[in-house]
Write a structure and sequence with these properties.
The chain is built from 6 helices and 7 strands, in the order βαβαβαβαβαββα. It is of the alpha/beta class. The longest helix has 25 residues. Bound molecules: 5-O-phosphono-beta-D-ribofuranosylamine.
Amino acid sequence: MEKSSGKKNTAVLISGRGSNLRSLIKYSKTKKSFIRIVLVVSDNFSAKGLDYANKSNINNIVIKYSNRKSFEDRLFKILRRNNVDLICLAGFMRILSGKFIKKLNKTILNIHPSLLPKYKGLNTHDRAIQNKDKYSGATVHIVNDKLDSGKIILQKKIKILKSDTRKSLEKKVLKIEHRIYPKAVIKLLSSD
Ligand code: GRF
């Protein structure tokens, strides 16, 4: 990653609620932050997370997803135009192609609500409960061309209680997500 004047120009990609975006914004406003969020991109006009971008006066844009090629072409141009150096996927529900990732040639991070490599993809909490797992957690990893499979930057686990439901587990894991996403960014960029 290019080492310029300290803070990395960062784009956060969302599709919905945006609570991880909110935690990244909060971190970016701290004095010692390694990132400056210059752009929020959503593939969904009604993503609630866009409100957080607006409230913090962060440039944001919705790119309608009609097909992957046109979406990625527009995304590529916008990221380039904004000199984005780091991309954080935060509840972004599209899969980026290997071609796009290679062409962009920037670090892309993702947060996933499971202890990867367990439970790639969707419905992670249901699967953990069904399998009577003792632990669940959250993982921040580098995005590569395989779903939820890139190098793990940070992972934190929590106990699954017998009384846990999908909802209660989701709530607990989300709380952890909000803590580890900024920590993973720090870990990644402090060794830059
Ligand atoms: C989080 O659980 C994240 O790990 C997953 O999607 C959810 C997004 O939540 N990829 P939010 O939009 O950040 O609130």
